[in-house]
Amino acid sequence: MLRATATSRTQHVVLRRLADELVALLDPPSPLDERAVHEALGRIGSALKLHAELEVDGMYPRLLEHPDAEIRALAEKMIHRIKDVYDGFATFQGAWTPERVRSNPETFVKQARFVVAALHESTTYEEEGLYARVDAAFEALPPEPE
Question: Per the structure, how many domains does the chain have?
């Protein structure tokens, strides 16, 4: 049987890979390529948007109605965290145009490393702290009427 979180887990792998591709652009010996960085941010932003929509619109509404109060509380906490990560990344992405990256590469690199670390931390936390519970919770729910 396919786990309820299978798609989310796969998306986490993709998000971490895209984040690692961004980090590779930040590391010397290559000079910082602001266009490549901007494109990498766009790929992360698109994948993160899709992921947030899947979870916020798909998984979490069912968990917020789960009969187990602990599951509901965990879902309430996590849905806000996901929204915060998405909003924070969107703000970061919007702030760093290629021109701004070119004019202030040291600050961009420092902030990009922080954002990538937060993305890794968030996906790991969600997988380790929530997904096993979510899979069990979905298995316990009655099937949705067709």
Answer: 1
Quick check: is 55 in a domain? Answer: yes
* Whole-angstrom distance, CA of residue 60 vs CA of residue 55: 6
Tell which residue, 88, 60, 87, has the closest CA to residue 76.
60
What single string gives the DSSP state of each residue in 16-43?
A: HHHHHHHHHHHSTTSPP-HHHHHHHHHH
Structure-token pair, residue 73: 């509380």
| In-domain check, residue 145 | no
Closest residue by Cα to residue 14 from 119, 128, 129, 135: 119
d(CA 109, CA 25): 9
**Would 146 be classed as within a structural domain?**
no
**Domain coverage including residue 18:** 6-140
47-85 residue pLDDT tens: 999 999 988 888 888 888 888 888 888 888 888 888 898
pTM of the model: 0.86
Q: Is 1 part of a structural domain of the chain?
A: no
